[in-house]
From TrEMBL:
GO cellular component: bacterial nucleoid; cytosol
Species lineage: Bacteria, Bacillati, Bacillota, Clostridia, Halanaerobiales
Keywords associated with the record: Coiled coil, Cytoplasm, DNA-binding
Reported function: Binds to DNA and alters its conformation. May be involved in regulation of gene expression, nucleoid organization and DNA protection.
Protein name per its UniProtKB record: Nucleoid-associated protein SAMN05421834_104111
Top-rank lineage group of the source organism: Bacteria
Length: 102
């Protein structure tokens, strides 16, 4: 394979990856904790875009439990969105692990 052909293929892959990243930024995933008492929505840029807390779990005498539920939901959302990004990018890269890519 000549160098020019390899460069063209690399540029195509780079363009596909950029397009995929743009598409992923629009996607969202929902994660919950406490049986749905805390719900977060995370986008493909790994930003929490929505947070809902069931008023029944808001106990002023047990703020720590609510904090734990929020952390659990956010962390689950982040794990799931990272997995989604990795899966989608793997489709573009053919499973190659490229430095600097999620």
């Amino acid at each position: 394979m000549n160098m020019q052909k390899m460069m063209k293929q690399a540029q195509k892959m780079q363009a596909k990856m950029a397009k995929m990243q743009e598409e992923l930024e629009e996607k969202t995933l929902e994660a919950t904790a406490g049986g749905g008492a805390v719900k977060v929505v995370v986008n493909g840029k790994q930003e929490v875009v929505d947070l809902q807390i069931d008023p029944e779990v808001v106990d002023p005498d047990d703020v720590e439990m609510l904090e734990d539920l929020v952390l659990a939901a956010v962390n689950q959302g982040m794990r799931e969105v990272q997995e989604m990004v990795n899966d989608e990018m793997g489709k573009v890269t053919g499973g190659m692990n490229l430095p600097g890519m999620p």
